[in-house]
Amino acid sequence: MIGEHVLAGYTGAQGAREAVALGRGIASLTGGRLTVAHVHPPGRPAAAGEARTLLDQAAELAPEAELAVQEGRGVGRGLSVLASRIGADLIVVGSSEGGARGRLALGSTADNLLHSAPEAVMIVPSGHVPPEGLSRITVAYVRRPQCDEAVTRAADAAARLGAGLRLLTFAIGDEPTEGLRDDLALATRLAGDGKVETETTLAQGDDIADAVERTAWLDGEILVCASSEDATAHRVFLGEVALKVLRATPCPVTVLPRGYS
Q1: What are the residues facing 169 on neighbouring strands?
Q2: Of these four, 171, 185, 238, 252, which has the most CB atoms within 10 Å of its CB?
Q3: Which secondary-structure segment (H or E) carries 183?
Q4: Does the structure show a pLDDT above 90 at 154?
Q5: In what order do the strands lie in the sheet with 120-124?
Q6: Taking residues 222-237, what's their average pLDDT?
Q7: What is the pTM of this model?
Q8: What does the alpha-carbon distance between residue 253 and residue 88 come to, in Å, rounded to a whole number?
Q9: Which residues contact 118 (CB under 8 A, 6 or more apart)?
């Protein structure tokens, strides 16, 4: 289950503060470790000292966290390298500044992670305040192996954490729904009968954003997406449709690497 060791990126910006807060909440739920890290570019003698000053601020937000400084030519790349080195299984980053409140805004760091990270990546909506518990895990489902794996992993996590499980698929425009409902029924069996309370939702709309808007979301909910079939093994790569879902969703989104285990 993801969240055994959470790595939150910190820059001092509001989005980074929200990432630390959510990372702390996830680690508390799973009983895992939390590392807060700042990535600075190489070749700047003063950068390490600046990083330590920022991490002193982060320590006030999460006193129990381990703190780390990492050199990197990009923040996303630096966090990926650090995650591999320390054994983190989830990288949490906030939305970029200027995004709409309650929505995910992808800056260069999130974009890099969503197309190359070796571990699961969680993006936090702007203005997000973590609730005390996890109410439900929703899996964006399309019938393919990566999504099947995401369903089984999410079901295990929901059962362990005492959360509900929802399987969500999209019918856009005049797309026939009978086959999609059959796919959801299959996914429900993959989740394991009786293992966890499971519900299904067929979200319909003129486009992805419209379908997401028409879908009900709970406080304390997390959306899980599988990586695209274009992803290399054990890497995150978010496809075009999933990216549209992510940008419209009002809750934190976790993207699993291909072949996540």
Answers
A1: 202
A2: 238
A3: helix 178-191
A4: yes
A5: 66-71, 33-40, 5-9, 90-94, 120-124, 253-256, 221-226, 136-140, 164-172, 198-205
A6: 77
A7: 0.94
A8: 17
A9: 80, 83, 84, 234, 235, 236, 257
